Amino acid sequence: MKHIIGLCVLCFLTIACTDPENETVIGYQLEYPAYFPQKNDIPVDNLMQEDKVELGRMLFYEKMLSADSSLSCGSCHQQQFAFSDSAQFSKGIEGRKGDRNSMAIVNSLFEKSFFWDGRANSLEEQALDPIKNPLEMDLSIEEAITRLKGSEKYQELFTKSFGESGITRDNLAKAIAQFERTLISGTSPYDLYKQGKGSLTEQERRGEQLFFTHPEPSVGLRGGNCGDCHSGPLTTNRLFSNNGLDIESIDFGLERVTGSAKDRGKFKIPTLRNIALSAPYMHDGRFGTLKEVLDHYNEHIQQTPNLDLLIIDATNEVNGTSLELTEQEKEDIIAFLHTLTDKEFIENPAFADPNKN
């Protein structure tokens, strides 16, 4: 098998496999702005392929993969909400209530870890967790494979995509991961502005400046301190942070994975792309609006022992004890955040439930 990887200067990443017998390219082209990271998490044993992406899309929306055939991955990750859920806690089968808000699946191609606590290190690993999670789809992977093998349609599709290996645990994970890697958001008004193809209002530009500025009150530099963690074009540094939600963390977050007390209350820093569509916010969905989120960072930070250092020293006033943004500055930042809403992304038919096309 011959593998070809090419990157266009502007916005194309083509990952293709070539059949040596007929030289037919069966790869899949990913598109994103040139200022996005050039390094991604695509494993060498799961290079992008059109048949696999389409199979992954079908599996993402396949309710057969839940114990009572009532839910799919797409039930809690809805395209209209940037592949998140509008509920504080998504409901699993039989109305079972989850314990965290469903993270938006946006630009996962570039992520290094997954879930709020980072317990999965690849999209392939992440893909199977909701299926077997008792609070979500509650179906053993063994039973999922049995059900898929009982479907002539899926037998044909897996054989077409994976050859003789057909329907296996690994191939199920690989297919879903391939579809999730295509969920790239890079055509928002802010992206058009960055590319010189659009403009921002005066308020949106003020919000952009505040968003990406760390305040330095000694020199009169005001900032929202957002970009310290929500940095770069992905609006996330892809790390973990304790952002002062509670003095005593009820949910231990990253500590569940590492076992280290220094990680208590730390959660994955999410992308803010399409953030205006993915309320409620935080790992537990406690905030219903962007205004509430800004109020938290501005006025209600709890001095937890693991509070992020980037938050501790952030203030807009000399000797200030909080961020101390004005109401107008908050409104400006929110206006900027709305420029990250990508209409093309949430309306792309290639990402939609194939059963509804």
Structure, described:
This protein has 13 helices and 5 strands. It is mainly α and 357 residues long. The chain has 2 domains: 44-185, Cytochrome c-like domain (Cytochrome Bc1 Complex, Chain D, domain 2, Orthogonal Bundle), CATH 1.10.760.10; 189-341, Cytochrome Bc1 Complex, Chain D, domain 2. Strands 1-2-3 form a 3-stranded antiparallel β-sheet, with no helix packed on it. A hairpin with a 4-residue loop joins strand 1 (2-7) and strand 2. The longest helix is centred in the middle third of the chain and has 13 residues, at 169-181. The two termini are 34 Å apart.
Total number of domains: 2
Write down the CATH class of the largest domain: Mainly Alpha
Q: State the order of secondary-structure elements, H for helix, E for strand.
A: EEEHHHHHHHHEHEHHHH
**What would the principal axes of the Cα set say about the shape?**
globular
State the separation between the terminal residues, measured CA to CA: 34 Å
Proportion in β-strands: 5-15%
Task: Count up the helices.
Answer: 13
Helix content: 25-40%
Task: Give the number of DSSP strands.
Answer: 5
**Overall residue-averaged pLDDT value:** 92
Low-confidence stretches: 1-25
The CATH fourth-level homologous superfamily of the largest domain: Cytochrome c-like domain
The CATH topology name of the largest domain reads: Cytochrome Bc1 Complex, Chain D, domain 2
The secondary structure category is: mainly alpha
Structure described in brief:
The protein has 13 helices and five strands.
Keywords:
single chain, 357 residues, mainly alpha, Cytochrome Bc1 Complex, Chain D, domain 2, 13 helices, 6% strand
